Amino acid sequence: MRAKNNLGTVSQLGNQHTVYHSDYTPELLEAFDNQHPDNDYFVKFICPEFTSLCPKTGQPDFATIYINYLPHLKMVESKSLKLYLFSFRNHGDFHEDCVNIIMKDLIALMQPKYIEVYGEFTPRGGIAIHPYANYGWADSQYAEMAKQRLLNFQLK
Asked: pLDDT tens-digit profile of 76-109?
């Protein structure tokens, strides 16, 4: 039997007066109850229009950000995630920092069983950077999964 939908404190969804923050704002992230906490399943988000700023030059960096996670009790609401990712637009951090910050903010919000964040940044100065970070619950099959996925991460 399907559980009744519980959106909790989700306020961005359906809001016709959306405010787009132009600097890093983790408070934008909202969560709602997972309706299927007894199932292990992946949720995947792809953000092909992620931008941030180089902390040294101030030049824009462009990326596709991939977020995969196995939810536990909470799930991230997609519009709040979009607004949160947009808030990096004028934020100055290295590519690796952006990926780790995104992952840690989502862990704090949801406490997922497993999560991975991959950034496919476009080349600037002749080099493309593709950072990957992941996390699985300590002392669980998900920690082992994180270890294996990291060790087997595709390198070209």
From this structure: 999 999 999 999 999 999 999 999 999 999 999 9
The one catalytic residue among 23, 38, 47, 54:
54
d(CA 136, CA 92): 28
Contact predicate 119/49, CB 8 Å: no
Residue 47: active-site member: no
Distance of CA 44 to CAs 56, 68, 75, 123, Å? 31, 4, 11, 24
Q: Which residues contact 151 (CB under 8 A, 6 or more apart)?
A: none
**Burial zone of 154 (CB within 10 Å; 0-12 exposed, 13-18 middle, 19+ buried):** exposed
For residue 102, give Cα distances in angstroms to 59, 75, 145: 20, 15, 20
Annotated catalytic residue 61: yes
Q: Which of 47, 61, 98, 105 is catalytic?
A: 61
Q: How far is CA 141 from CA 70, 132, 147, in A?
A: 12, 20, 10
Q: How far is CA 5 from CA 32, 35, 71, 85, in A?
A: 9, 7, 16, 25
User: What element of type H or E holds 141?
Assistant: helix 141-151
Q: What is the pTM of this model?
A: 0.87
